[in-house]
Structures are given as C-alpha cells and as structure tokens.
Specification:
85% helix; single chain
Length: 225
C-alpha cells in the first residue's frame, strides 16, 4: 500500500514538473537575471556583494528595528498593489467589468510606482542626484497622475467606499504640508517633526491599503457571490 502511494506521488510530481516547466522558467527568469547583474556589478565596480543582498540593519551594524515604519509602509504599498492586480486578473474578462478592472490595473501599477519610489528613495535621492530632476517636479508629476486617475475613473470610484480614499489623501496632504515647512518646524519641535511627517505618511498608506482591500473584496463578493 505504501509503495503504491509513493509511486502515485512520484508520478504526480513528475507530471507537475512537466506541466510547470514554462511557468517555473518565467518565475525565476528575472530573479536569476538580478543575481547575475549583482555578481557582475560587484565584480566590475569592486563593491562587496553583501551590500546588495544583506539586510540594511546588518550591513550598517545598527539596531534591527531601524526604519521599521518605512519598511511597514513599503509592505502595505506592496500589499495594496498585489490586491489590485490580483482582483484585476480575476475580473478583467468578466462581462461588465472592463472599466472597473481597468481602474484596478491602473491603481495597481500606480501603487507599484509609489512602492518603488518609497523603497528606493527615488524622489529624495536617485532622481535629483543622478538625473537632475527636482523633488518638487516629481511630486507635481505624481499629483497630476493621481488627478488623472481620479478624473478617468470617477464613476468607478463612486461605486466604492471612497471615504477611505479621502481619509488617505488627507493624511498624505498633511504630511506634504509638514514637509514644506520642515525647517520652521525643526526649530520649534525638533525631531518630533519627523515623527509627525512620517507618521502621517504611514497613516495615509494605511488608508490607501484599507480602501483597496475593501474595494476589491466587496467587488469580488458582489460579482462572485
């Protein structure tokens, strides 16, 4: 009996291996390409591979909780993008869901862009330092892109609990307001200004995540219930 079960398991395993060969190749193509790029860059530029692959706190030998709020924010950005793109993949071919699925696709891609910006410090370091693009110009670009999304998909948004999205925008707006007067606030409250600014930003990300979590779950329940 056990021999038969083992034989069936091996048969299934080999069958799955044949069926998933293409998927596995696609799944690991970019990660392997990334690791090759790390190896080449490390060798040619004489940069320790540890700087590319190790945890930040371990590299700088600091407390493991360093940047925890920022890391949690990136995790919530990523979760929001995943929810949007997963729901888009389910709804995109269903009748009557073309516009709403397009809204989720654009929202997911926009969230991925914000995730990359937050994680790699694009608007703070990379773009200004290496591409000469001022931070204010990037903020303006992000703002215009979000305004375009609101205008293009306003009917879809009005079908959702958009109060959560409004709360998120309020927190983001307050964080930006503090950023514009950061030097004046530094003189008044010191480092508490950083907690206020980054705390409000984190609350904005929480609102963004909560909105799309409820938006996508409600849509799936209504269409598949």
């Amino acid at each position: 009996m056990r021999c038969t079960q083992k034989s069936d398991m091996l048969t299934q395993l080999f069958a799955q291996a044949r069926k998933l060969t293409t998927f596995v190749c696609l799944l690991y193509f970019l990660p392997l390409l990334f690791l090759i790029a790390v190896a080449v860059t490390s060798s040619r530029m004489e940069i320790a591979t540890r700087l590319f692959v190790s945890d930040f706190a371990a590299v700088v030998d600091r407390h493991p909780l360093i940047g925890i709020a920022s890391n949690l924010g990136v995790m919530l950005w990523t979760a929001s993008a995943t929810i949007c793109l997963f729901t888009w993949a389910i709804l995109r071919r269903r009748p009557g869901e073309v516009k709403f699925s397009a809204f989720l696709l654009c929202s997911g891609l926009m969230t991925l862009m914000l995730t990359a910006d937050d994680f790699f410090l694009l608007h703070e370091k990379i773009f200004p330092r290496y591409l000469g693009l001022p931070e204010k110009l990037l903020f303006m670009g992000y703002g215009l892109l979000i305004l375009w999304g609101l205008a293009a998909f306003k009917r879809c948004i009005f079908e959702t609990d958009y109060f959560l999205l409004l709360v998120s925008f309020i927190f983001f707006g307050l964080a930006l307001l503090i950023d514009t007067v950061q030097y004046q606030l530094d003189d008044l409250i010191g480092e508490w200004r950083i907690l206020a600014e980054d705390g409000l930003k984190m609350l904005g990300i929480v609102g963004w995540f909560g909105y799309f979590l409820r938006c996508c779950s409600s849509r799936l329940q209504n269409r598949m219930g």
